[in-house]
Amino acid sequence: MSAFVRDNPPAGAEEPDAFGIDLVDGDEPAVRILVRGELPATVEHDGRTWVATDETHDAGDDGPPIAVFRPRA
């Protein structure tokens, strides 16, 4: 995922790094989103606020780890 973003920027534009984020809520399947630029402390998605945790998932290959966000309590 991240390799594709970095290898295929729009013509004439320099793309910032991209990071994967998994939005995890209990036993529900995670929602994975891609964030360009710096990794934020919170994300707004689907009417909810999601907060960064210290958890990560292995992205495999040479990509950065996938950050885990959980709903704000």
Summarize the structure.
With 73 residues, the chain is mostly beta strands.
Description:
- Residues 1-22 are annotated as: Disordered.
- With 73 residues, the protein is mainly beta.
- It is built from one helix and five strands.
- The chain has a five-stranded mixed beta sheet.
- Strand 1 (18-23) and strand 2 (31-36) form a beta hairpin.
- The model is unreliable at 1-6 (pLDDT under 50).
Number of strands: 5
Rg measurement, Å? 13 Å
Sheet with most strands: strand arrangement: 2-1-5-4-3
Number of helices: 1
Largest sheet: 5 strands, mixed
Low-confidence stretches: 1-6
Share in helix: under 10%
Mean pLDDT metric: 82
The oligomeric state is: single chain
- Termini separation comes to 30 Å
Tell me the fraction of residues in β-strands, as a range: 35-45%
Sheet/helix structural class: mainly beta
Order of helices and strands: HEEEEE
Principal-axis shape: globular
Topology:
Layout: H1 2-7, E1 18-23, E2 31-36, E3 42-45, E4 48-57, E5 66-71
Parallel strand pairs: 1-5
Antiparallel strand pairs: 1-2, 3-4, 4-5
What tags apply to this protein structure?
44% strand; 73 residues; mainly beta; globular
